[in-house]
Target: 3'-5' exoribonuclease YhaM family protein
Amino acid sequence: MMLIKQFVSGDEFTGFYLLKEVEVKQTSGGAPKEYLDIVLSDSSSYISAKLWDASKLDVETFVPMTVVKVQGLVQTYRERLQVKIIRLRKAEEEDNVSITDFIRSAPISTEQLVTTIEKVISEMEHAEIKAITTYCFNKVKDELYAAPAAKTHHHAYYGGLAYHMVRMLELGKFVCEQRPFLRADLLLAGIVLHDIAKPAEMNSSYGIVSDYSNQGKLLGHIHLAVSWITEAAMKLEIALDAPEVLGLQHLVLSHHNLPEWGSSIQPQLPEAVALHYIDAIDAKLQMVEDTLHTTPETEEWTPFIRGLENKAIYRLPLK
Amino acid sequence: MMLIKQFVSGDEFTGFYLLKEVEVKQTSGGAPKEYLDIVLSDSSSYISAKLWDASKLDVETFVPMTVVKVQGLVQTYRERLQVKIIRLRKAEEEDNVSITDFIRSAPISTEQLVTTIEKVISEMEHAEIKAITTYCFNKVKDELYAAPAAKTHHHAYYGGLAYHMVRMLELGKFVCEQRPFLRADLLLAGIVLHDIAKPAEMNSSYGIVSDYSNQGKLLGHIHLAVSWITEAAMKLEIALDAPEVLGLQHLVLSHHNLPEWGSSIQPQLPEAVALHYIDAIDAKLQMVEDTLHTTPETEEWTPFIRGLENKAIYRLPLK
Amino acid sequence: MMLIKQFVSGDEFTGFYLLKEVEVKQTSGGAPKEYLDIVLSDSSSYISAKLWDASKLDVETFVPMTVVKVQGLVQTYRERLQVKIIRLRKAEEEDNVSITDFIRSAPISTEQLVTTIEKVISEMEHAEIKAITTYCFNKVKDELYAAPAAKTHHHAYYGGLAYHMVRMLELGKFVCEQRPFLRADLLLAGIVLHDIAKPAEMNSSYGIVSDYSNQGKLLGHIHLAVSWITEAAMKLEIALDAPEVLGLQHLVLSHHNLPEWGSSIQPQLPEAVALHYIDAIDAKLQMVEDTLHTTPETEEWTPFIRGLENKAIYRLPLK
Amino acid sequence: MMLIKQFVSGDEFTGFYLLKEVEVKQTSGGAPKEYLDIVLSDSSSYISAKLWDASKLDVETFVPMTVVKVQGLVQTYRERLQVKIIRLRKAEEEDNVSITDFIRSAPISTEQLVTTIEKVISEMEHAEIKAITTYCFNKVKDELYAAPAAKTHHHAYYGGLAYHMVRMLELGKFVCEQRPFLRADLLLAGIVLHDIAKPAEMNSSYGIVSDYSNQGKLLGHIHLAVSWITEAAMKLEIALDAPEVLGLQHLVLSHHNLPEWGSSIQPQLPEAVALHYIDAIDAKLQMVEDTLHTTPETEEWTPFIRGLENKAIYRLPLK
Amino acid sequence: MMLIKQFVSGDEFTGFYLLKEVEVKQTSGGAPKEYLDIVLSDSSSYISAKLWDASKLDVETFVPMTVVKVQGLVQTYRERLQVKIIRLRKAEEEDNVSITDFIRSAPISTEQLVTTIEKVISEMEHAEIKAITTYCFNKVKDELYAAPAAKTHHHAYYGGLAYHMVRMLELGKFVCEQRPFLRADLLLAGIVLHDIAKPAEMNSSYGIVSDYSNQGKLLGHIHLAVSWITEAAMKLEIALDAPEVLGLQHLVLSHHNLPEWGSSIQPQLPEAVALHYIDAIDAKLQMVEDTLHTTPETEEWTPFIRGLENKAIYRLPLK
Amino acid sequence: MMLIKQFVSGDEFTGFYLLKEVEVKQTSGGAPKEYLDIVLSDSSSYISAKLWDASKLDVETFVPMTVVKVQGLVQTYRERLQVKIIRLRKAEEEDNVSITDFIRSAPISTEQLVTTIEKVISEMEHAEIKAITTYCFNKVKDELYAAPAAKTHHHAYYGGLAYHMVRMLELGKFVCEQRPFLRADLLLAGIVLHDIAKPAEMNSSYGIVSDYSNQGKLLGHIHLAVSWITEAAMKLEIALDAPEVLGLQHLVLSHHNLPEWGSSIQPQLPEAVALHYIDAIDAKLQMVEDTLHTTPETEEWTPFIRGLENKAIYRLPLK
Model:
């Protein structure tokens, strides 16, 4: 079966893909007809596709997150590839395909990622930090197997959030070795907690975010995580003004490093400074890696990357 | 006894005043001697004063927040008035003066202010909003009699925070009458809660802030208040994701109206929009009023006001 | 007759509506044909509509601001409702409908609004302020019955400008009672004058702005209003440097509260500070109210509101 | 007599200078005494000076803008030169010196500058533009002989405003020759009018600004000039919405080229674009020239120049 | 033959034009067909055009930068003129037309422009400045006959870069006469060098930029020009830290006048200040002139101009 | 000998210290006398000190960067410690002290640091990258033993630049292992070259920067480094447009990650993104570490740190 990333203009293909997005539209000409404006995806990439002259049944059948069998033609439209769908049907049990075969996911199995994070927590020596981190981690553990780290910016795929945490934990340990004045438990707990409420901020399935939750819009994941730490401390009977509660809440609150403008808080603990920059380097390099990965290797330049000040990345032909 | 606001260059006076600030300094000339660089205050205003050739005993005796009897001379220095102290002693019991006679305070008694706020809370109809507001209010009620609303910006005096709340509650009720689609309980609770954690953010006595607390610096009063609402809900067994918890936390979080940049949250409820602008109008007009009040009436222009984009206010001679 | 706000996908309807906007477009398919891309409106809301295969006569007949009888079908297109027009004709005299039945307008009759403003002016005690305000008011009185306060931002409907003034006058009086150091005549005159030149800045009919005038683009309504005050003073033989002229011009000039950067002027009178914040709170709350009003009640969130930092408003399900 | 610009540390000198600024200060040591903190100036530069142990008489005698005879010693203090005054007296009639000998002034006589401007106006062909320009010019003609263009930024000396106009008129004519689509009368009138109200915005004598007027602070010179054009049109019975009034007001309003943010207006006529950039180039190059002129030639770098983004200018040793 | 600038809706015409841009698109209706979305241009202006039902041969034949014979119909679409192409063929030798007849170009022949620049260089007196300028100039001399100064902003046509240089050289000489403290050789060399690497930054033909080069994206024309000066100095055996190398590199580096933020350099030589403002005035006035030139004279307002803060220019009807 | 970091108010001490800064000032009282305003330093910290009644000889003897023997008294002045000098003399040969005993320096010997960097370069596999890096490195190798990385921001001490490089090289290698798509030679060379021209930008001795060089002000270290790469390529006969030259110049140019605003270049290679964030994390954590190190351990909060948005760091009392 042909991977989407390998499509070339003129290809005719048949295979299974995932309907990542589906919109019903009408042609604007004489007697307007309905058609489906689709985003097909597999584990390698995604592509725009059209099903012209869609029947009522088509509209009802082909909803987002459905695996389908497609016969299609690859064309060029406005300098981008696009699929004209010739035949389309839902995958059936006999086809023996599963949605998880068609989604992008972290390069390491999420079971392994979650285990790694649990191991880091279990090795913490500071009892209260360990307890609070465990409490918050358990609130989302089940969702962590799938949750992405963001809607589009970076690590936007199955297991992306856990993958982001694991990479940051590796970097965090290395930096603590370089600079022993950093308190490792505090920094590693900050890494685990800084984005821990993202699964409550965004509604997602199979690593694909559909939208933000009401809580997500009105409070945001940072303030949710801060509330979870309050909740954990109350349940664990740790004083709300204990240094470890103050420290963990400060790390979460300040990790975006905003200017002191109104309610925002900037890093004022060494570990908070470290957390911000470890988060930044991991997120930015992952954006670069993901974009290079989904850009055909024949392209010298990737598309523009929003999170990198909207710049593209160049494949420098170093020998 | 002469009020500081009435001092004119050349006056010689004797009276009781408060040592609001005291710093020990050394003259820079030949054989350096110690002197005290003082801010004297009373209920009308404040003024810089010097006690030259301070003895060891003077340094130990004259500490901030002491009421003293001063014989002094009013001079002009760098276009501003300043007092040269001739004689100075601590007030004694027989003098029959109290520190509260010398501090600036809200124009309404703080007992009355606190009673007014309690009445507004007691009249709320929404049971959970009323309960959460009561819980948080009681955490600081004792401090509210004295607490200022800010270190210098606005309402920076005895009872200033309660006064700010009461004025905002009046405006809030008026706006709810103009626009019945606003839910009064939610808005009024938001007004009570938006700055409720300020007494925990700043260390103050008699309405004068000495510095920020560690909690204040690391979390800020907004996030403290949000945590208090979480705490209240847990104690009161209200679900943490109930609409009233979400709504009150959103009002507090968004009242500085920051751009959506990282962790910041902007108003997304009608009452949150109202809260922000009611807070703004009350704070800004109070800055104007306070500055006019402490500026001698012979001055056409007040000093520059930081919170008003550093502009001065002009006394327009309208007939 | 069905109100636009009540339309549901699948409805078929017949009724009278206003052609708020009409654009002639061509289908992009094979042999391109003309069609009309229309915005229909009534007093409740507005909706996009298409007339396919428009004849030359259609193009000439159906121009903006015409009341028409429509038979149409409500469809969903790109997640929004849209009308496919089946039959369309101009309203005739026998239909007994008037354009004013189909426009959005302030919730209070504009006659009443204008009368209210006149009453406030007539009660002013400062003779020159009253005379200047009257002079400027009379320049636009006839247009005030219809003029909107803005093209889209807020109060963008029939009588919107007068409604904005009246609400601000109510707030202004309340604030003057709270804070007697404010000079009511100056503030109330400033409220009347701050947007008084908007009818000269924007071309509108029935409260709908078609475009900005050349004067509006080259000078802007603020500088036009300042010139009108100069003109009024000259006609009334008031010195151009009299405090009341200076004060009123300053209130108008500074009401957007810009940083002192080049030619911009920031509030430096107490009444100018009050004017700015009263304008802000009224405009922002009206944006919220208008948007909630035109959003179907089945929607949890309104569309994004430009003037509120592009945030949406949430209908919090408080019991 | 030694010019200030030529002073070297260690010099002892006697001569006549102008007291540009005088402040009475007190020494901070043991028994504080008064001294005068002075800025001495002549036509070449200015320098800080101290008169220690000032008597009451000294304080009364030595006020700003007095010409004095000074015997002094040049010393270095904080890496800058400073004068210790040994003897000081007011200049008397027999000394035969005049204040105009001690002020910095434009390099061309102001009589000549004013004549040049009048000639440019007299050669305008467009009757109304010529009449309006003449009217406004005559309002300040008497002050133009002395008025500076700014307090400190550029052309801050006797005749500086007229000098700025003349240089801009030269550039304006050259640009009109390069680009005949520009209407010379409109551009040249804009050059004359753009800063015409500066004498009403700032109080100055002999080209030295002491402070801003109340009108200057509350309205600013740009809006004053716009009002003058309105006044001129009314007196000359030119319609207030005639293109020439609109054009001239637009040129004045937009010459600072602010972003469209609230009340500000940006250039939207070709001549308005030209005016902004001609103003900029003349002001910036004059800052450079003035700063190089008042910096001792032994210095490689000038002081930082606020109007040039706070950068210093380097004397590149090109052979 | 009809010039594009003279087209009026309804015109039918036959003539030769240049295919400036061609994109293959598909109609979105029923059975999608290909059509060509074209930009036709001649020396007067440009216009959008469509060739419906394009065959495979059409797609291969009609590529950008081809001169064609067109029979077409001028229509109005979305308030703009557009051409419906009826017949289309490539120009043949017998047609006796050349691509250079159809491109916009500087109003002076580029031969003359290049000669003028060479003359200015040849008259320089400072040997090293002259040698470095000559070296860099010769690197691009052949390209200067055609190169535009920008992709769209200003002087975006055949010979535009040379034209920009010549105009700036005229202004530069005038300013040096006004202000003799400016060193003419340094300033004029800076004018020649400031944009000299633009031909290496952008790929263009006949004055039309197709895209940026990889060097252009990764280094930018400013840093390329700085490197060329290094290269020139090494070849000419001038020390890399000689004042003339330093001066010329500084002029190039600082000509965009950025705030000192990281690697950016602001003008710190008098000639660098002059260069920045001469560049600005020439570029901005040319944008105005070009936009007026390509806007039909019947339009009161030009389109918005990006480089002028996105403002339009008004044709003020001065008599 | 007592370390400065251990000074407590009231201490009297005798020992050797370095005169890091010396300024001659005058007392402002009656008969002004000269005194020396000094910064004393040793390897642990630095402190302000005064020598009252300085003689002419004192002024000539005690110049910056002299090692002296001091008898002094530690006092508190404006809440900070300060030394009143009782006796002072230059260190003599018999004292057997060397300036290097009194300067702050990197925690690893600079010989070791330089050797480490050379080893990394020697292990590069890409011949041209290795050659260019070696060429540039050798230009400053001798200065690298002492050069600081900045004037005050971070690594502002003896060997600070080499220390910054070494730490970044460690991090760079770790990140390359985490993410094998990064080309290690390019990234490591970028780390060596990104600040390589700092010794030419700043004049320093013993790790203390006295000022910026003229080259530093006019071109800046980034553009100097880019020129050195051009110079290296020419000497090594590598084409100036070879990918390795382009890549290295891009890494240097973009490492401050400026928005694309005029001449500035942002990271567009994966290694450039990595370089920017590795530079940031190392610089910021070093600021934190250095500030904690020089702040007495009795202080809960450090002073404000400019490079960290002017925030202080808190010593959280985690058990």
Observations:
- Chain F touches chain A at residues 126, 167, 170-171, 174-175, 178-179, 181-183, 186, 243-244, 246-247, 257, 259-260, 266-270, 273-274, 277-278, 280-281, 284-285, 288-289, 292, 308-309, 311-314, 316-319 (CB under 8 Å).
- Chain F has two domains: 4-102, 110-291.
